[in-house]
Every structure is written in C-alpha cells, then in structure tokens.
Design brief:
With 251 residues, the chain is an alpha/beta fold. The protein is built from ten helices and twelve strands.
Length: 251
C-alpha cells in the first residue's frame, strides 16, 4: 500500500505566503523560500506552491521565486497559478517544478489537460479544483474562488482525469481555513469516481483531522497551510501520531 503524504501549501500573493478563511481575509504567513526550506528539512513529503492571484491579475506565475524555492528543497514540488499553455508549464518545469497544477485555465480550456499530459506525462499534471457546497451540490469555482461556474465537482473531476490529469487537488471552500476538518464525505465520493491520487485540502485544524481523512477512504495525501505556517502542528509530531494510529506514512 502506498504511503500517505503530508503536504504543506504555500499560497503566494505579492511574493509572500498568505492564508485566509473561506478564501477571504488573507494574512501574511512568511517568506515562501524560507518556509519551503523549513518544510523540506522537517520531513514534508511534497510541497505545493500556488500563486493565488496570478489568474485574477492576468499574469504568469513568478518564475524567479519558483526557481529559488526549488534550489532550497529536495522534495517533489507542485506549482500552480496562471498556467494556461504548454509553454507556461515548460518554463516552470525548467525552473524546478516537478508537477504542474492547473485550475481555472483547465475549466476554460479542458483540452489543456490533454496537451499537458501528452507533452509531460499524466504524472506531471495536477488538476486543482476549488468547490463550494451550495444547496447540497458541490459547485466548481474559478479565479481563486471569485467566479462561480455551473460545473458539478464530481462531473468535472471525472472528465479531468479522462483528459489526462494524473492527480486531483480538491479544496473545499466551505472548509478552507476553518480548522474544522476536511470535506470527508465529498472526498470519499470522489475516490469512488476516479482512480488517480487525491490530495485533500481545506479545513485541517488538528492531527485528528489528518487521521480522519486518511481513515475515511482512499485519500492519498492531505494538504494544509496555516496549521503548519503558524506552528500549530509540527510535521515530525504529526507523522509520529499517524504511525501510532496505524497510518502508513513516509519516514
């Protein structure tokens, strides 16, 4: 059985790591390069770097910062934000990213997933999806949660995998930053629909929440931000706790 992964997330705005609640009220969480180096040293299994305002501002991900982060870490590194073409992805991979995360651009141009998978391989393509539960239906949102679509979360994820996504990063906007736990029911349903790794994101506030999501279903990784950035959970302590509770994690 594959070992579960613990993944810190760096949400980047204006060159700084930020974190909010329900995608609003962002506050500063530190220098992304320093944080990336710290997490790599502390035993994080991977790192996700999301330039959260690149799409809204109509610009590309900050290449220089990606390069600086890559030079300081020795763990897999996923980068997203403002990627709308194979050329964009190629620049980031050359700068040191291991995987590319696409969100809004994939909804607007689903064939981008196929183009990326054909060029770099499915294992390099992460479909990031931000969704909110509205009237008992999970609806996909774009542009950092600013634009509501008519897409159903599960329909979109299934199509995304068919087109070439090799991994899903699902963030529940209802749970984001609340520290009340992951969207376990939605994640369980998603795991029954697709056969690619799923990263749970949004809502983690305790070690118990990591345990819950890993025990709930076939979830491969759990991502968190503020609990790591502000020292509420230390990764070595978390991994020890999960091991004690029979969750197979990486050393």
């Amino acid at each position: 059985m594959l070992k579960k992964r613990i993944i810190p997330c760096l949400d980047i705005k204006n060159g700084r790591t930020v974190k909010g609640i329900n995608f609003e009220g962002l506050r500063d969480a530190g220098d992304p390069v320093d944080l990336a180096k710290y997490y790599s040293e502390m035993g994080a299994d991977e790192l996700v770097f999301l330039d959260i305002t690149a799409t809204q501002e109509g610009r590309k991900t900050i290449i220089d910062m990606v390069s600086k982060v890559a030079s300081e870490i020795n763990i897999p590194f996923t980068v997203g934000g403002g990627i709308s073409s194979v050329e964009d992805a190629s620049l980031l991979l050359r700068a040191g990213a291991d995987k590319i995360s696409v969100n809004s651009s994939a909804v607007r141009n689903p064939q981008l997933l196929k183009e990326l998978a054909d060029k770099f391989g499915n294992q390099c393509v992460v479909l990031a999806v931000d969704a909110k539960l509205i009237d008992n239906e999970w609806i996909v949102f774009l542009s950092g949660g600013k634009i509501q679509t008519e897409l159903n979360l599960f329909d979109w994820v299934e199509r995304g995998v068919e087109l070439g996504a090799g991994e899903i990063l699902f963030t529940s906007m209802n749970h984001d930053g609340t520290k009340k736990g992951f969207a376990v029911e939605a994640l369980e349903k998603m795991a029954q629909i697709v056969n690619v790794p799923i990263i749970a994101s949004g809502g983690c506030g305790s070690k118990e929440h990591f345990l819950e999501v890993f025990k709930s279903g076939n979830i491969d990784a759990a991502l968190a931000a503020s609990v790591f950035h502000f020292g509420e959970i230390e990764i070595p302590v978390l991994k020890e706790y999960l091991e004690e509770n029979n969750i197979n994690v990486r050393g």
